[in-house]
Write a structure and sequence with these properties.
By secondary structure, this protein is mainly alpha-helical. It is built from 24 helices and 8 strands. Strand 7 and strand 8 form a beta hairpin. The protein is globular. The protein starts with a helix and ends with a helix.
């Protein structure tokens, strides 16, 4: 077995058996150069303070509806390009309704918007969509992708998280209420450490928010329990880095980061915040995670997935090559040195320090936090972030295509009180967003990838939008907000510890997957994903997923033609059309197109449909 242990050591893992005596600490540590960071590393764009920039001068001022347009138009004009013509009203209402709510506009809404000739027709539409309960479901799902939301532990046990749904509902509510983003960050990383207010709703939300740290995958059956806790802390740290700063902090676990200025010592300084956080109820053969009982907003006792500080805190030592059996120098808890300064004063705290960490990340002076979030919002509206690598602002990531615009948006974000809804308004009320997606041959030669946004990019509906739109079109969508659907498919292997295990689930007959609820409420059981959502490229729930992969494969088309779900919904639409007693085939066809595609059929489509029906 010596060669197995050697391989594990080189990989930064441990095959230690729980209960074995650990070796003494050795006085080894990665060598520190005279200057920790080079001048190039210090001057890297992402680590510079957000700048207050001037609006660029443009020629076609009549096109400008928003300050955003000046930044976009300036680059277009400097490259000899012009923006595309405005989108039609039918296309615009469909675009913005899907973008803000994840659902299609109804025929009544389309007609009302088309008939509204007032100058503020589109701003009124945007405000109505932002006030909709469906807005939080749509944009909450984006955050849940980033937070790697799941309702089971994955790994060998795949134990069910029966109370994870409370975190999901907290996120949806936070978006609907336009919770300031800095507060949103602090609550998720350290809500349990905030002062109690005496208000059940506020105190409940602050505890539930820390589910962010609990809902990730956990190797609860791992035999080496010290390694298990280190792996959980690593997963929490990695997700925190990606979610809030777009930095791959986990890459510095076993050695200094290969590309970014993140020394291994910084990794263990940050890991110390999470290793001093209580996440597991016990360390038995099948470990149980912490599920404290709290008062919900109605004063009822409920269980939540949350964390707590350990009674006594201590700093970690550097784990050489990632192994806790070979320890180096102490890494006192503090922040990233490339941002907070080399050898800045470590934290003096009796607790874990998570609240201090959260406030540092949420600071308006942090160079990454606001930039990363506005870039994510931009990416969801325009298909590509101003920084295309929205999960990596480091040296291996992409540079911003419009750096001045990115900084202006970040600064405006902070000045607006960290309002996410205000960012939506800024973006969708711009002429840039309201362009058509028509292709100009000359512009396509100059900028084939449309980085300069000379037209509005076309985008595919994501998996959840496709399913929800089908249910909406047939009138079958259940719009109930919140709650738990994961009520079957598990058993308890230890009733005293309330430890559930996910049984084998037949995805085609699993009860919760058959419910006509919005897709965000479908149980997110790791390794057992809803078959339709998986087929159409839903997020990977095992890790933070700011972007999604897109595939075009034959099973997608076959699903639309042959699946029992689609066939049932198609039959439902037919019954719905005939129940309305339309006077003619043309009327029914027009209604079907308006419901499903948001527009009437073309003459060619009418002709083809009539031929198909009469054959």
């Amino acid at each position: 077995m010596d060669w197995i242990a050697a391989l594990a050591f080189c990989a930064g893992t441990s095959l230690a058996v729980s209960g074995e005596e650990l070796p003494k600490t050795v006085a080894l540590s990665p060598k520190k150069p005279a200057n920790l960071f080079s001048e190039d590393e210090k001057s890297f764009w992402a680590f510079q303070p957000v700048r207050d920039v001037r609006f660029p001068e443009v020629k076609s001022t009549q096109w400008v509806q928003s300050p955003i347009d000046r930044f976009i138009l300036s680059q277009l004009e400097s490259n000899g390009l012009k923006p595309a013509a405005p989108a039609t009203r039918q296309k615009l209402i469909r675009r913005v309704t899907f973008d803000l709510t994840g659902l299609p506009p109804t025929p009544v809404e389309i007609k009302a918007f088309n008939n509204d000739v007032s100058a503020d027709a589109f701003p009124k539409l945007v405000n109505r969509l932002l006030a909709s309960k469906h807005y939080g479901e749509r944009w909450g799902k984006h955050w849940l992708d980033i937070a790697r939301y799941g309702e089971s532990a994955a790994h060998d046990g795949n134990n069910a998280y029966l109370h994870a749904w409370r975190y999901r509902d907290y996120v949806i509510q936070a978006f609907n209420e336009d919770k300031p983003y800095d507060q949103f960050i602090i609550e998720q990383l350290a809500g349990d450490l905030l002062p109690k207010t005496g208000d059940n709703g506020t105190d409940y939300n602050q505890m539930v928010a820390t589910g962010f740290l609990q809902i990730g995958p956990k190797p609860v059956v791992m035999r080496d329990k010290r390694q298990m806790l280190l792996d959980i802390a690593d997963e929490q740290l990695h997700t925190t880095g990606i979610a809030f700063m777009a930095l791959t902090l986990g890459c510095a676990r076993c050695h200094d980061h290969k590309f970014d200025p993140i020394p291994t010592k910084d990794y263990y300084s940050l890991a110390g915040f999470f290793m001093n956080t209580h996440v597991m109820f016990d360390q038995l053969p099948d470990s149980m995670w912490l599920q404290p009982q709290v008062k919900d907003p109605k004063g009822r006792d409920v269980k939540v997935m949350a964390v707590q500080d350990l009674p006594k805190s201590k700093d970690l030592k550097v784990h050489l090559r990632g192994s806790y059996r070979t320890l180096g120098n102490v890494a006192p808890r503090r922040f990233l040195q490339i941002i907070a300064g080399e050898d800045h004063t470590p934290l003096q705290t009796e607790g874990s320090g998570r609240l201090e960490l959260a406030r540092w990340i949420a600071s308006p002076k942090h160079p990454l936090t606001a930039r990363v979030m506005v870039n994510r919002i931009w990416q969801k509206h325009f298909g590509r972030g101003l920084v295309a690598s929205s999960d990596d602002f480091g040296a291996r990531g992409d540079k911003p295509t419009h750096p001045e615009l990115l900084d202006w948006l970040a600064l405006r974000f902070v000045k607006s009180g960290w309002s996410i809804k205000e960012m939506h308004r800024l973006m969708v009320l711009s002429s840039t967003y309201q362009q058509s997606s028509d292709v100009d041959a000359q512009a396509a030669k100059v900028d084939p990838s449309n980085k300069l946004l000379w037209r509005m990019p076309r985008r595919r509906l994501d998996a959840e939008e496709i399913r929800d739109a089908i249910l909406t079109g047939t009138g079958q969508l259940d719009t109930t907000v919140g709650g738990n659907l994961f009520t079957s498919g598990y058993k308890f292997n230890d009733s005293k510890r309330d430890l559930p295990v996910v049984e084998h689930i037949d995805v085609d007959s699993f009860g919760p997957f058959q419910e006509p609820r919005r897709s965000v409420y479908m149980p997110a059981v790791r390794n057992v994903i809803h078959p339709m959502l998986r087929l159409f490229d839903t997020a990977n729930e095992h890790e933070s997923s700011p972007t999604r992969h897109q595939t075009t494969v034959a099973p997608q088309a076959l699903f639309m033609m042959n699946s029992p779900f689609v066939r049932r919904q198609a039959a439902g639409l037919i019954f719905k059309l005939f129940e309305e007693k339309q006077s003619s085939f043309e009327d029914r066809l027009s209604t079907a197109y308006l419901v499903l595609l948001g527009r009437p059929p073309t003459i060619r489509e009418q002709s083809k449909a009539k031929i198909y029906i009469t054959k």
